[in-house]
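Subject: complex prediction, re-run

Hi both,

The earlier run crashed halfway through, so I resubmitted it with identical inputs.
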Amino acid sequence: MEFPIERFELDNGLRVVLSEEPSQPVVAVNLWYNVGSRNERPGRTGFAHLFEHMMFQGSEHVPDTQHIAHIERVGGSMNGSTWLDRTNYFETVPANRLELALWLESDRMGFFIPALTQAKLDNQRDVVKNERRWRVDNQPYGDWDERIQAMVYPPDHPYHHSVIGSMEDLDAATLADVRTFFETYYAPNNAVLTICGDFDRREALALVEKYFAGILRGPVPPPIPGRPELPPKLAGQVVETVEAAVGLPRVYAAFRIPPYGDPRFYQADVVTQVLTSGKSSRLYDSLVRRKRLAQSVVGFAFPIVTGASIALVWATASPETPLEKLEAELWSELELLRTAGCRAEETERVITGIAARHLVSLQRVGERADQISMFTTLFDDPETINTELDRYRAVDAALATELAAEYFVSDNSVVLRYLPRSERKEAA
Amino acid sequence: MKQNRLDRSRIPDPGSLRPFRFPPIDRFQLSNGLPVLAARTESLPVVTYSLLLPAGAIHEAGRDAGLASLVGSLLESGTGSMDAAAIAERLETLGVRMHVGTSWEVSRVDFTALSAKAGEAAQVVATLVGDPTFPEGEVERIRHQQLASIMQRRAEPRGLANEMVARYVFSEDTPFSRPLVGTPRSVAQLSREKAMSFHADYFTPMGASLIVAGNLTSDEMRTTTEVAFGEWTGDAAVKLPTVVEARSDTTHVVIIERPGAVQSEIRIGHVGVPRNSPDYFPILVLNTVLGGAFSSRLNLNLREKHGFTYGANSRFVMRRRPGPFIVSAAVQSEVTGRAIEETLNELHRIREAEIRPDELADARQYVAGTFPLRLETTDGVASRLAELAIYDLPDSYLDDFAERVLAVTADEVLQAARQHIHPDRLAIVIVGDPDPLRPQLESLNLGPIEAVRPESNE
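This time it finished cleanly. Structure:
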């Protein structure tokens, strides 16, 4: 199964990728800006995400809240999201509304500043603070990624802080910050535009030219702040225990691994899935099914590229199970993987699952467009959507075992434990 | 100077749109009488099978709440020569994960496979559904997992709020008042015998339907389903009468205490409408204007105007019988009273006057236009076919959908609002920190205020 890929670049540096597939009369427009929380400077954590919210607050020719309204009223859906390495904006619309989507995206790429007001910033600051309360502060285990990132990456590494940021830093953000951030990062030469689905190629290119070619190239973005380079592995184990409003104890074990794109990243992903993916995985079979110590196990590797990535597994204890016992069993399973090795049938099964889920998820044009933007932004290669599975298929049991022995070890690990907070004492 | 010639203030016109058609629906029966609804999609080589069973949780005795969910979770625990570990390996070697969704009126067993593996996967799944062995050890393990997940959900504000609003919207005798997964008390006394008996009564082809959507030929669909499911037998499911009543006919306020919470999870609701309501299409448009989209009144008010929340929404949950109508939002503790006040204002306002012409046009177009977006995947197509099977809708429903939505008038929306939204009989449930909440709620004078500790073991 091959997705067609055509790649162009406008004079202003905007990279454009087209992928036609006319089976349904819908089209996806997807933009990745090569900026994420890793680009935030000290004292402004959470800013890239707050900025993303501001992109929905109108631009010179589109009134406040109307970006989404325009898409909804034609029967489309739209959103944006911010992560460590990037910020994306995307919509899926009926095929005859491609021009509307390009008009909207180009207006906020080229004409964002004139619509900016203090009132909009104050409103979205409140919304984002409520998003933080909802996702993180009022949610059991909600701060796990914030804590893991802070332990896996040193304070001067751009992944040390979370995407959502701190309340203090959100409070500190100013209108001048918004302007500067836009001028620094939101330029055509720092973005990738992907169009996927049902469209006429010549018409689409003409529309892209019409709406985006006039937007001026921006300066070359500054280097990522802090120190993105770091040793490939941690210098020992870091442990943190948190008492919080959670129902059941949970332990996270995270490992520093090579960044996304490195062949060893795919090996690490396969190892993580041998451990946790599905009911045939090792940790499910052992901790959940046979020993009944865990309620569930989860694991994944982060597809991030700046210096080093993270592979992690977590296990939620069954009621009655002491967390130390679960943790000890988790480590002995990892030990077993290193010493006795992965079996060929395990890596093959995991890769079969990755391939099947890959195809199932790519049924959506929006998902295809997002992946193409990702591969173009991170690796300058949209064709990776057609070739990435080969990188997984190159992982065999021997490579997976070798990787596990090198990286899934306590000296290269971070352990985060959550324990239920003892009940607040009430007056009788 | 291209940009000078481009008038950016002009909203681009739409081009012409190739009309969307739902793929042709093929209805046939297997040799055991099991009806099949099949639709062929031709983009990627994947296919979704979805078996709808008459095994909804309304068939549980009240004291056995959670039994249908337990039986669903146990389907992968043993059959014939395979134990749970062997089943997992077998399915995952095919690249397949089976998903069992228990709901009130049906249980649904789904899987999505590469087309080349579909027949084999269907055979495995058919065996799991038709012939589970319910090993004693697995029953105990899964039952304990269910107990623990009830506990986990109650420790989580959103899950707790959802459970509690159902309890305060519906009368105690209404199954919908209970959590689908049951309560600590009910799940504590479930057993292998109860699971086997529920399975025998309700996991039967009599009253079930099978859905197939994806990239297979008509012959392949017929063959794979017949080989897998054609010999499955069982008696007709026993249908029990089900009560659906409101808990109260006046507004009442319930604080679910979570000391120290930095946000309030608000749920405001009452008994809603059944899926076969004659007002179905006006209700879709009504809810879109009120709280069904980003640009809805509730979200623009609570989020974009006031910054109280990350998002506010409303929905009519429609079942064969009336499900709940619910407004949801998570707001800062200090502004909870004001957020509830704004929500009630919106519930009153939409009953008082017709929605504006632009709201009507936008909402109709949103509902009609987003319908095909959900048909990109085989799973999405299967869900629409399931809707036909569960609610006895004609095949033409799918092709007529857009036309029906676009014909809704502002007056129909107003009548639907007056008939189906009841600001005078709301269950207002708030999971949050009781100390700051109480004075805010008292000053609103909405009705009696009750405070409940969530840790009760019931």
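The two ends of chain A are 68 Å apart (CA to CA).

- K.
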